[in-house]
Amino acid sequence: MNSIEVKDISKTFGDVCALDHVTINFEQNKIYGLLGRNGAGKSTLLNILTNRIFPDSGQVLINGISTTNNDTALGSMYLMSEKTYYPEKMKIKDAYKWTKIFYPDFDETYAKKIAQMFKLNIKKPITSLSTGYTSIFKITIALSVNTPFILLDEPVLGLDANHRDLFYKLLIEKFSDHPCTIVISTHLIEEVSQVIEDIVIIQDGKIIRNESCEALLSKGYTVSGSKTIVDTYIQYKNVIGYDSLGGLKTAYILGEINKSTLPDGVETTKLDLQRLFIQLTNELGDDRNEFESSL
Amino acid sequence: MNSIEVKDISKTFGDVCALDHVTINFEQNKIYGLLGRNGAGKSTLLNILTNRIFPDSGQVLINGISTTNNDTALGSMYLMSEKTYYPEKMKIKDAYKWTKIFYPDFDETYAKKIAQMFKLNIKKPITSLSTGYTSIFKITIALSVNTPFILLDEPVLGLDANHRDLFYKLLIEKFSDHPCTIVISTHLIEEVSQVIEDIVIIQDGKIIRNESCEALLSKGYTVSGSKTIVDTYIQYKNVIGYDSLGGLKTAYILGEINKSTLPDGVETTKLDLQRLFIQLTNELGDDRNEFESSL
């Protein structure tokens, strides 16, 4: 089975415990969302998976075999990371040739085709690109390497909305044509919720959620209506925030909804993934709790 | 009146016309969203407003007086831009002291207070910060300078969802407590639609939309239902994309909705700002049009 097994991985940087006994499987041919706050440990995990940094303890197995000193296993994964390791002044088209040496299944023709869709000029040096176009350059490679595992760390950083839209479409196309395991780490949670199947939430170096997007989304809902009615309804509910506008109120609630107990005159919708994530990862005693979750 | 008047500004870089006869007013005490594709001219406009770069022709007036060689006018604007101009190795807390010299109304106590909310360690050198925390550092200054005009270029780049949430809340708080004119340039359109009043869309150096968020949002809608019914309904409509799932279809339509002509069994919602933006700024003959707008 083509899976990545992460077994009891821990990693400390100085005083900071970046990963704390992390165990997780990334199964074959699934798209995962790896979500977490800034500094939660997402990038550390992705870098350990691909042997760019080494864990203090624990191991990573690909198809049951440890990735340590295992070029075959490592060659089956591609990590699009924040850092790029191309020589200064290298042009994009030359980076494509260079990639082909390390990833024999890299499809240069396809990379050039999607570069054109994004209007990326492949004659430019990589270092001359803006934040958005640096991401696009990395996307053109990640979507063309054709490895069984593709790991994407903040793939849409700096991209405009149209380009993000195009990226999500190309990703789904790629996944349909060449099924593979994709792990996307991103802060644009609401957008990515439309392309991912499973969600892994990491918080302070620990996995706090690992379930299907659908299952997680079923755990939160909103209730809207006149303030008095909503206030009465939510009295004994786990309310995580609200919006008010004139006499109207929307409350965000964690838990399973029981539609039969809903009073007349209120409307209910699912809680979106981003708001759910924000609540699940807010820290106890966090200063920001003095604000309403009103947006 | 405290307004920024941009009069017939043009700017060319080499072969590229970055701004093409741009005329626009930013009125007192409003929050504007300055939206555009990568490379549309947003940053050039913001840099010209603050005299960091000079236009080839046209002028910028603040309260009716040209900003050229006018330190008072320039001191009334603060631009949070992609580039930071602080000396290498300068610590955040020293940057706060430095800011106070140039912006006498800068509230250092408040900057430190919100730094703590974001868990920004102000003893760190600015250059040691991650992408997200570099944005947070700049946010703490922008929300504390207390100038009549605050211009924010990609303020939430790299921020996690919780921090973006906190930023939007603090921005609204600031605006309520000290009304001012705020211009936000961002690619996270759906999120910002909740805090902005007016929208300015720039495309290829030209202003293509300048109207209230509400007015713009009233111009698009979606229709969902069984494929056959939706297909019949949209026959003579300006359809900009659709989603299909089994026998169901959602069509995205530009134009005013006439609810009386809606057939039974279809549901309609407003088109969100991001999808509307994507369609308005897609270029004719753009390669990406070969894809459905399906996300």
TrEMBL record, chains A, B:
Signal peptide: none
GO terms of molecular function: ATP binding; ATP hydrolysis activity
Keyword Zinc: no
Gene3D superfamilies with a match to the protein in the record: P-loop containing nucleotide triphosphate hydrolases
Protein name: ATP-binding cassette domain-containing protein
Keywords per UniProt: ATP-binding, Nucleotide-binding
Residue span(s) of domain ABC transporter: 4-229
SUPFAM superfamilies assigned to the protein according to its UniProt record, in alphabetical order: P-loop containing nucleoside triphosphate hydrolases
Domain of life according to the entry: Bacteria
Lineage: Bacteria, Bacillati, Bacillota, Clostridia, Eubacteriales
